[in-house]
Design a protein that fits this description.
By secondary structure, the chain is α/β, with parallel strands linked by helices. It contains nine helices and 19 strands. Strands 5-6-4-14-15-16-13-17 form an eight-stranded mixed sheet, sandwiched between helices. A six-stranded mixed sheet has the order 8-2-1-12-19-18, sandwiched between helices. Bound molecules: flavin-adenine dinucleotide.
Length: about 375
């Protein structure tokens, strides 16, 4: 087998597809669950945005968002990309200065549609929010949402049409090495010989890396989302609205809203239970910015939790591990793995097949940056 990919989520699926785009078809994707999408991909909010702070994340989005806009045509399968925009609103000068700096960086890198707004325009884009304390914001209309499961399935379907094999209900339990590097994987269905293994195991990435003797600084962090019942106070065409003063954000979902807030008190761990106390926490922040939320109903049974795969500098880890030839990483997306899945697939395929990629400066996201202290902190986190 030329390439073994561990993990059949959106990232493993995109890598498989992009390998076939470059003519590499002897590829197997190993997924321990009976169905794809049971990891973070199936729990995601599906947000896509180019409004980041660091050039490398902006570049990943500048590759991925146009890819989503052509996805349906290219994959003959829907992505449900809805370019409804992300509106970031701020109540203080410090955040406004931050948005201005990011705006300039985004425009310099080629993002054409992002705009800075004063309070009146913010109120026009999101008339439902309380805007008396808002001093401005930033809006990019090509940001928006996709359906993560559809994107994952589209990538995998196309990859399989071209010969990629998906092994479900198969767990990778060992990674074999010899004097030259990686030489195979051990699974619950037998061993597979290969010189290239890709770790696309989402929040479980550090456990998979450990099988190869690699100490990967990726840790799981619970994130919770709360949908409302159908609610007609907000247009289904609304953008994702982010209140920078609290981190509360929401977007339309079906005939209701999907509410999100990242609790700063959350601690790392494989916790996937939904904590009922979170509802009160998120609603108190939400109602303050979105008073009509008082009229919305929330059914706790429809709320859910999933895991972000975090790194110390909140950037992904992409590419080879220098100390173990043939072992590649596509991990630690820190909440951005759905939106960056197209760029990731292309970068990994480039690095595996050609050793270089022109999508980003891949050294910036190399595994070795941690040991070398070359961190590149992303602050525009959601
Ligand atoms: C609540 C929430 C909201 C989010 N919102 C967004 C958002 O708005 N936008 C965005 O871009 N991202 C968002 N994310 C992050 C995004 O979901 C992830 O970055 C992305 O899904 C990662 O995809 P993945 O394929 O790497 O991981 P996963 O989807 O977790 O896939 C990894 C797969 O590996 C398999 N696996 C693990 N170990 C083994 C093994 N030993 N053998 C075989 N298989 C194995 C697992 O079963 C799993 O299916 C959100 C995440 C959460 C939890």
């Amino acid at each position: 087998m030329d390439v073994v990919i561990i993990g059949g989520g959106i990232v493993g699926s995109s890598i498989a597809y992009h390998l076939t785009e470059s003519g590499c078809r002897d590829v197997v994707v190993i997924e321990r669950e009976a169905h794809q999408g049971k990891g973070s991909t199936g729990k995601s909010m599906g947000g896509v945005r180019a409004q980041f702070a660091t050039p490398v994340n902006i570049r990943m989005s500048l590759y991925s968002i146009p890819f989503f806009s052509k996805f349906d045509e290219r994959m003959v399968s829907p992505s449900d990309y809805r370019p409804q925009g992300y509106l970031l609103v701020t109540t203080n000068e410090r955040h406004m200065a931050y948005l201005r700096e990011n705006y300039q960086r985004q425009v310099d890198l080629g993002l054409k549609s992002v705009q800075l707004f004063g309070p009146e325009d913010v109120a026009k884009i999101a008339p439902e929010i309380r805007s008396d304390d808002i001093i401005g914001g930033s809006f990019c209309p090509t940001d928006g949402f996709v359906d993560p499961a559809s994107v994952m399935n589209g990538f995998m379907r196309k990859a399989m049409e071209r010969g990629v094999e998906l092994m479900r209900e198969t767990e990778v339990t060992g990674i074999q090495t010899d004097g030259k590097g990686v030489c195979g994987v051990e699974t619950t269905r037998g061993n597979i010989g290969t010189r290239i293994v890709v770790n696309a195991a989402g929040p479980w990435a550090s456990l998979v890396a450990k099988l190869a003797g690699v100490d990967l600084p990726v840790y799981p962090l619970r994130r919770m989302l709360v949908p409302t019942e159908p609610f007609d106070k907000i247009s289904p065409r609304s953008p994702m609205v982010v209140d920078m003063s609290t981190g509360f954000h929401y977007r339309p979902e079906g005939r209701g809203l999907l509410l999100a807030w990242n609790d700063p008190e959350e601690t790392p761990g494989f916790k996937t239970n939904f904590d009922l106390a979170f509802i009160e926490k998120i609603l108190s922040r939400g109602v303050d910015r979105l008073p009509c939320l008082q009229e919305a109903e929330v059914n706790p049974r429809r709320a859910w939790a999933g895991l972000y795969a975090m790194t110390p500098d909140h950037h992904a880890v992409l590419g080879p591990v220098a100390s173990l030839p043939g072992f590649f990483l596509a991990n630690g997306f820190s909440g951005h793995g759905v939106m960056h899945s197209p760029a990731t697939g292309r970068i990994l395929a480039d690095l595996i097949l050609h050793g270089v990629s022109d999508v980003i400066d891949t050294q910036l996201l190399a595994f070795e940056r941690f040991a070398a202290g070359r961190w590149i902190e992303e602050t525009a986190l959601l």
